[in-house]
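quick q for whoever's on today - can somebody do inverse folding on this one?? i tried earlier but teh output was garbage lol. tokens:
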């Protein structure tokens, strides 16, 4: 697996793949890779001849006071994991390569509606940063297919919408959440948890699972969700939101069947997110 840092060799290498008629899959990440990321690489492998992974800790999607500086950077380990998982190429640019004019002057992509509320409400500008860098990666790599995790459910919805709205010729594939044995969704940020926090963290998945079962059995969400928030607090989590939406993240209506339960909660200074898809009864 080759690692490229600059745009011209990336374009040259990809042009050669394309001349040979090879299908290209893209897996964007911020590095510090775990089995969740590697599931995306495995999915990409199934869907294309060439798998291009990217590692870029995108400053445009971090807010003031968030963990941009502390975010774990583990390039050598990540390279070994990507190589073992079957990636063909790693693009790992430095920030000035992506944003040569600096962040303030950067042209941005904004995806209205689906970026609003949930994590977008707690992290203003976050999804504009995501949409901007993903659009840029789509332009640089011009993949046939791109794989994203369902763990970042709203992010996946934002990317699906931007691909539709900008008529981008890329197939977006969502990959199911990879979890630890106790149910906690794998995340680079889990490394911030101390032992006590790590022991409390599975309460997020456990609570979502309990709520899903009750919702699928017809319990009224208006009654259940406040109780869910109380259960999260009782487990030592500080919830930012707990919401039930239609699967496309539009507001729930009387006829919604395919739905998703989404939550974000803080444990100390670490913010965890999770979600479960479900089918509401008639
Ligand atoms: P990140 O490095 O956190 O930006 O994540 C890069 C990609 O990996 C995103 O598409 C995430 O949704 C996906 N991802 C992260 N954690 C998981 C997980 N536990 N299961 C599946 N996909 C994941």
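ok took a stab at it. sequence:
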């Amino acid at each position: 697996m080759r690692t490229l840092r600059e745009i011209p060799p990336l374009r040259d290498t990809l042009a050669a793949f394309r001349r040979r008629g090879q299908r290209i899959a893209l897996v964007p990440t911020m590095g510090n890779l775990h089995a969740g990321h590697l599931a995306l690489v495995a999915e990409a492998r199934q869907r294309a001849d060439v798998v291009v992974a990217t590692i870029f800790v995108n400053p445009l999607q971090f807010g003031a006071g968030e963990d941009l500086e502390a975010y774990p950077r583990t390039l050598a380990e990540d390279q070994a994991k990507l190589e073992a998982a079957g990636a063909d190429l790693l693009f790992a640019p430095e920030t000035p390569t992506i944003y040569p004019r600096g962040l303030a002057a950067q042209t941005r992509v904004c995806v209205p509606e689906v970026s609003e509320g949930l994590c977008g409400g707690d992290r203003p500008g976050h999804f504009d940063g995501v949409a901007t860098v993903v659009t840029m990666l789509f332009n640089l790599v011009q993949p046939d297919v791109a794989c994203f995790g369902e763990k970042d459910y709203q992010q996946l919805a934002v990317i699906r919408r931007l691909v539709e709205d900008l008529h981008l010729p890329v197939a977006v594939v969502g990959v199911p959440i990879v979890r630890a044995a106790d149910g906690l969704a794998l995340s680079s940020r889990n490394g911030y948890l101390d032992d006590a926090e790590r022991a409390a963290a599975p309460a997020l998945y456990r609570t979502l699972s309990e709520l899903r079962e009750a919702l699928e059995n017809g319990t009224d969400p208006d009654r259940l969700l406040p109780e869910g928030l109380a259960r999260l607090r009782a487990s030592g989590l500080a919830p930012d939101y707990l919401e039930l939406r239609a699967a496309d993240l539009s507001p729930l209506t009387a006829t919604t069947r395919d739905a998703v339960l989404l939550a974000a909660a803080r444990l100390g200074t670490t913010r965890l997110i999770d979600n479960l898809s479900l089918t509401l009864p008639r």
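fwiw Residues 29-30, 36-37, 39-40, 148-149, 151-152, 175, 177-178, 185-188 surround adenosine monophosphate (CB under 6 Å). also The chain has a mean pLDDT of 98. so keep that in mind when u check it
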